[in-house]
Amino acid sequence: MRFVETIRPSADLRNHYSEISRQCRENGESVIITVNGRGDTVSMSYEDYNRMKARLELMETLAEAEDDVRNGRVAPIESTFDELRAQLKGE
């Protein structure tokens, strides 16, 4: 995934919201809003936000799994499925 970013001052957010919103939605751009020349917030389409959030959650889950394997917190798949079956049967 490649991020395309545009930098705009906070006054543009007030005065040109529709244009910024369209830029985010139609072009897939993220717009960095600055205050006094420094980055303050980022505007992006809701779809892009959800996609990025899902990717981050997946990366966190994979990092936790990798840490579990590295630290020996694993179990044979057969016993894991046996435990799941027992839980589903209410045992």
Structure description:
Helices cover 60% and strands 19% of the residues. With 91 residues, it is an alpha+beta fold. The chain has two domains: 1-44, YefM-like fold (3-Layer(aba) Sandwich), CATH 3.40.1620; 46-91, no CATH class. A three-stranded mixed sheet has the order 1-2-3. Strand 2 (30-35) and strand 3 (38-43) form a beta hairpin. The longest helix has 25 residues, at 46-70. The mean pLDDT is 93.
State which percent range the strand residues make up.
15-25%
Q: What's the oligomerization state?
A: single chain
Spatial order of the strands forming the largest sheet: 1-2-3
Order of helices and strands: EHHEEHH
Radius of gyration, taken over Cα atoms and rounded to an integer in Å? 22 Å
Average pLDDT metric:
93
Give the % helix.
Answer: 55-70%
Which features does this protein show?
91 residues, alpha+beta, YefM-like fold, 2 domains
Summarize the structure.
This protein is 60% helix and 19% strand. It has 91 residues and is an alpha+beta fold. The chain has a 3-stranded mixed beta sheet with strand order 1-2-3.
Layout of SSEs?
Layout: E1 5-9, H1 10-15, H2 17-27, E2 30-35, E3 38-43, H3 46-70, H4 77-89
Parallel strand pairs: 1-2
Antiparallel strand pairs: 2-3
